[in-house]
Design goal:
With about 160 residues, the chain is mostly helical. The protein is about 75% helix and about 0% strand. The protein has seven helices and no strands. It is elongated and about 60 Å long. The chain starts with a helix and ends with a helix.
């Protein structure tokens, strides 16, 4: 039952990324769908009790997200990278606590972090939608009655 709920939330988040997102959001959506399929393929790859295949797949996803984070102007990607880093770090628990019962703690944390990642998908879809709307409406606050006197550093630093 929990698995069905998690997969449903994941697919709803990916659909939101595809519907409202730009190419960055759609790339993440494709990566997540690939992750859902490939995790079943690499699950049998284990070293003792350590799920090396799944850990490697999660590391690859983290590196791809970091590459997008460093090249694109999307705040949700930063949050996604942070949550994915937490998920990757939980894969170290079986190596550090060999023979102990902390492995289930790591799995539980990973499930909860995945739900945070899914929530981040919805935030990403909203951010892409808001960026398009802001660009469409002129991207300036000229009509704003309570305009700030602070200088927009992004506008002055861009070529």
């Amino acid at each position: 039952m929990v698995t069905i709920a998690i997969i449903s939330v994941t697919l709803a988040g990916v659909l939101a990324l595809f519907r409202f997102g730009g190419w960055e959001e759609r790339a993440v959506g494709v990566m997540v769908l690939a992750l859902l399929i490939l995790v079943r393929v690499v699950e049998p790859i284990q070293i003792g009790s350590w799920r090396a295949g799944v850990a490697g797949l999660e590391i690859a996803f983290l590196l791809a997200i970091l590459a997008l984070t460093y090249t694109r102007d999307r705040w949700w990607l930063t949050a996604l990278a942070g949550f994915q880093l937490i998920s990757v770090l939980t894969h170290l628990v079986p190596l550090l606590a060999s023979g102990r019962h902390f492995v289930w703690t790591a799995v539980t944390i990973r499930l909860e972090v995945w739900l945070l990642i899914c929530i981040t998908f919805f935030v990403g879809a909203w951010e892409a939608w808001a960026a398009r709307r802001f660009a469409r409406e002129g991207g300036s606050h000229a009509q704003d009655k309570h305009r700030s006197r602070l200088v927009d550093l992004d506008a002055t630093q861009r070529p």
